[in-house]
Amino acid sequence: MAASANTLRSSALALCYSAAEYCAPFWSCSAHTGQVDVQLNSTMCLISGTLHSTPLPWLPLLYKIELPALQRKAATDKLVKKIVKHDSLPIQPDILSPPLLRLTSRKPLWLDLQPVDIKSRWRHNWKSTQVVNSHLVCTPTIRQPGFNLPRQQWSLLNRFSMEQGHCGASRRTWRLTDTDLCPCGETLTMSHVVESCPLTNLNGGLSRLLSG
Ligand SMILES: [Zn+2]
């Protein structure tokens, strides 16, 4: 039996995210954090059954897992708050009266001591993102409709939302087939199936599919 979305979410948080956030305040300003994010995105694709071509802003939203960069910033904010509060910590002067920059490429954490509110920043990022079908989701910080569906249906629903699935157009791009045509004669894309195909379209289209 396939694991529920909740089980997959907890497993990913416990096994991948916790390891990927270990001591994050000390390396969150590194230029190589992108490599960690690549692995986390890959985890998200695996547990959500989405394809690697899925637009990235959609991924954290599926499981309501905050963006890794924001999580790292929040962990840093927490640490800075603790350091500022405790006068006895030897690291305090380094944060409050930091040494002059010696190398211009350094990005020390005291350059950004403004705490971040993960949820509002995420909402803001989502609103300004130019990703396909982003209008379908008003609030990225809540559990999205369909989360409790059996995994196979939920995963298929996500593929329709993100317009990334095993349809003719994608399969042709991947050179798995010679034709990208639907039996109706139009190009077979994920949105064509629900929105415009005379053979399969759903009255109300994708919005209706998502509203159940
Ligand atoms: Zn068609």
Summarize the structure.
This protein is 50% helix and 0% strand.
Shape designation? elongated
Low-confidence stretches: none
Bound molecules: zinc ion
Q: Percentage of helical residues?
A: 40-55%
Number of helical segments?
11
How far is the first residue's CA from the last residue's CA?
Answer: 23 Å
**Estimated radius of gyration:** 22 Å
Secondary-structure element sequence? HHHHHHHHHHH
* Count of spatially separate domains: 2
The assigned structural class equals: mainly alpha
Overall strand count: 0
Oligomeric composition of the shown chains: single chain
Biggest β-sheet strands, sense, barrel: none
Mean pLDDT equals 88
Structure write-up:
By secondary structure, the chain is mostly helical. Helix content is 50%, strand content 0%. The chain has 11 helices and no strands. The longest helix has 18 residues. The radius of gyration is 22 Å and the shape is elongated. The mean pLDDT is 88. The structure holds zinc ion.
List the helices and strands and how they pair.
Blueprint: H1 5-20, H2 24-27, H3 33-48, H4 58-62, H5 68-85, H6 92-96, H7 118-128, H8 151-162, H9 168-173, H10 190-196, H11 205-211
Bound molecules: zinc ion.
Write out key terms for the chains shown.
single chain, 212 residues, mainly alpha, 2 domains, 50% helix
